[in-house]
Amino acid sequence: MHAPLLRVRTSALLAALVLSVAAIPATLAGTPFSKIVVFGDSLNDRGNMLQFTQGAFPAPPTYTLGRQSNGQLWVEYLAGRLGMSDKILNYAVVGAMTKPAPGFPTGNVWSDTYGGLQGTDVASQVLDYLGDFQGRADPAALFILEGGANDFPRVANPAVIVGNLIESLVTLQAAGAKHIVVMLMPDIGKTPRALMAEAAGLIPPGSAAFYSAVCQQLNQALLAALPTYTYPGVTLTIADTWTFMNRVAANPASYGLTDVQRPFLLFGGTGDQSKWLFWDDLHPTTRGHQIFSEQVVESLVRSYSPGQGKVGNGAINSLNGLLHSPRR
After folding, report:
1. What is the pTM of this model?
2. Would you say residue 184 lies in a domain?
3. How many domains does the chain have?
4. In CATH, what number is assigned to the domain containing residue 132?
5. For residue range 309-319, what is the model confidence (pLDDT) as tens digits?
6. 143 strand-pairing partners
7. Which residue range is the domain that position 299 belongs to?
C-alpha cells in the first residue's frame, strides 16, 4: 500500500468520524434527551400565564416566580435530576383545558377574568410548538403531555377529555416525537378544595369520594387507550399523579409531611412550608412537586430499562443509576 493512499484513506476516515460525532444526538452527549418540551396547565406552567396577564397572575407574594406554588415545579426538579435545567421548553399555561369546550371557547378557564387567552389549551400548545419548529417534533426530546383537571368539572363526558389527550399524543407522534411522558389526572377528591367544601357543607356529603372515583375512571380509560395509539418505536412513560396523591395521603410521614389536606396559604402561618403537601386549595407546594418528581424519575428509569427492550437507546446509559445518584 502506498503511503499517499494511506494518508488519503486515513483523512477520509477521520473526516467520517468527525461527521459521525457531529451527528450524534443530544441523548448521547451527556444528557438523556435534547430538551424537555412541556404541555399542560398550572401543574407545569413556569410563567407563561404571568406573561399573558402582564404580571397580574399568578403573582407574588402569594405565588413564586410565576408558578402556582411557592417555588419550583416538578418538571424543574426532574430537569435538574437529568442535568437539563437549562433545556426546558415550556408551553404550559395556567387554566388550560385539553381543548376548547362549550362555554369555554378559549380553552382556558381563566378567560372570564383575563383577556388574550385564546388558543392556550393543551391541543393548541402542541400545535404552537410544531408551528415553531416547521411541523417537526424533535425525536431526541422528552415531551411532557398533561391536562384534564380544568376540564373535569366543565366537560360532562370523560371520554371527550380522554379523546382530546389522545389526539394531542397522536399529533406529537405523527410529527416525530419518540419520547413522551403522559401525566394522569390528579385525584381531585384529595385536594383541599374538595375536602374543605364538603366539610363546610358547600357540596353534598360523599362528593370528594365521587370526584376521586371519576378521576380514577378517567385515568383508567386513558391507560386503556394508550397502547392502541402509541406508535411503534415510541417510548411512553406514565406519570401517575393519582396514585402519588393517594400514597402521600395514606402515609404522609413517610414523605416527611405533616399536613396533606389543608392549604398552607390559609392555615400554615409561619410554619415550615416543606411539611405541607398543598400550597393553595388545589396546587402542591414546591416540596410536593419535588417528591412527585422523584416518582417520575423512577418511572423513566423503568421505561428505559433494558428489560423493557430498549436496547441501543442512548437514553438508557444517561438514565442508568439516577435512582442512586445524589438528589439535587
Report:
1. 0.87
2. yes
3. 1
4. 3.40.50.1110
5. 555 455 555 56
6. 37, 180
7. 33-247+283-308
